[in-house]
Amino acid sequence: MAWEFLTVYWREMIRFVRFRTQLFASLLQPALWMAFFGVAMSSNFSRFASAIPAPAGVVPVDYLTFMAAGVIAMTTLFTSLFGGISLLFDKNWGLMREMLASPMPRTHIMLGISLSGITKSFIQVAIIMAFGLLLGVQFFPGFPAVQIALSVLGIFAFVGVFSLGFLLFSSTISMRLESPEGLQGIITLLTLPLFFVSNALYPIQAFPPLLQVLSIYNPLTHLVSGIRYFALGNDFFAVGARYSSTTADVLGSFAYLVIFAAVMYLLARRTFQKAVVT
Amino acid sequence: MEGEDIIEVQDLEHTFDGFAAVRGISFTVRRGEIFSFLGPNGAGKSTTINILTTLLPLQKGTVRVAGYDVAREPGRVREAIGIVFQDDVLDRDLTVWETMEFHGRLYAIPRDERRRRIDNLLRVVELGPRRDERTKNLSGGMKRRLQIARGLMTRPEVLFLDEPTQGLDPQTRMRMWEYIRGVNVTGTTIFLTTHYMEEADMLSDRISIIDGGKIIVSGTPEELKNTLGEDVVYLETEDNTKARESLRGIGEIRSVTESPRGISITISADGSHCLPRIVDAVRGAGIGISSVNLKKPTMDDVFVHYTGRELRDEGA
Question: Within an 8 Å CB–CB cutoff, is residue A10 touching chain B?
Fold first, then answer.
């Protein structure tokens, strides 16, 4: 087993903590989403939602708690989509040549980048959860300590595999593009549909049929479902809709994300093996 | 192992979108020598070096480096070579030590060995006290030295230097030459590309002049300059006309012209070998000599002779 990808990881993490502005921005951004968008929306939504009472025996969940899962998912999406950008800079500044001319297998470049992207996502998710608790997000309602620990692991597993898929996607795009502006454009183009055609901020039950179908194929929907399953339980009521899910549903979502990541891996590997950078 | 060819290139061709950057070149580099590719920007030097270092895929021809075929065993080639790239290829935000550490880890050098080599090499290139400095704060010469140290870290059999002194001031350049010679003395073969005449002349054991994707001529710097056959000996004597007559018997003399104070003798062979006989002949005729000057052609003259134009620093 070769461990050179840890070298790429090591350098990425040095950069992460060294670029202070970027570091603070990436940590502050999700907290700001929670603080402003979350609080503003929840004060509105909770007013409407209270008109539809939760059925007996189902846990009612307030909007802030509901959307906290969405903010976790969205932050992971952004961070992962931008995760490959350092490859673009490496390529443009000639640094990529050092790695490509070394005996290190090329797949290790994308593995190192992915591992560092996942680490960054984990840090952000931990911050959102901690900050959410301060704002009044009620994750893990009535869970015993062991279940909370397992749930946190479950959330991280979902975030990890989702993040991996989009990091590999971002790496592939970055290796094929010439300019950071191009990547920026593609990311902007992708984020809107991915984010809004999903269950991140509102239930998809009320979507028109076409959007509903699209949202089911959206990896973000599966990430959000997984996070909610672990954070809120398998049967809860939020924004006027009941969410009940079985273990099979959650495993299905996880499998979907694993397949997505696997396809992205194959795509990225092909790109890296054929890459010519001089 | 001495005298063996460490780089063998046969009929190498490379085309970018219909533009032929390298048009059928063949050459060999012997183990332990300093070999230079001398030519203007755009001559095909970088393309060749990129193919030799496996950064560009081989299109046509055969290339063996350190005994391995670049197309079939690029991994082996990569393990055997070190590269110092043309422009400063350094992560601005890593420190000097981290730059070295990163490189050593890329090549999977075990930790203790790696740290030892880093300490040694930083001492050699006099960057030891700067080990915790970020590379963006280094001067141009320091950056280049760091890259040479990095290139040497893996103890390569061949070190590729792509325009190693481009953009450096003359003093720093001279010091870089000393480092490069020092590296070569320890047994590392050096392949360097340059568009500086005096650099190729000062450093190389052998030079290939490359222009328009083709090798125009190859040889040692002396051979190249001597083949021009235009060494000029300038003499000031007591009697220039008589001195001129006394030289009739020397076959290598191509022409003699008299100037107001002395005579210029153009020689078709190596002037340094001819000069003693010229002096003997003039003295033998009883004519006193007050001044002797031998002017050998420079690499500039060589380049102009073979390509029909001057090699200018195009500033790229």
Answer: yes
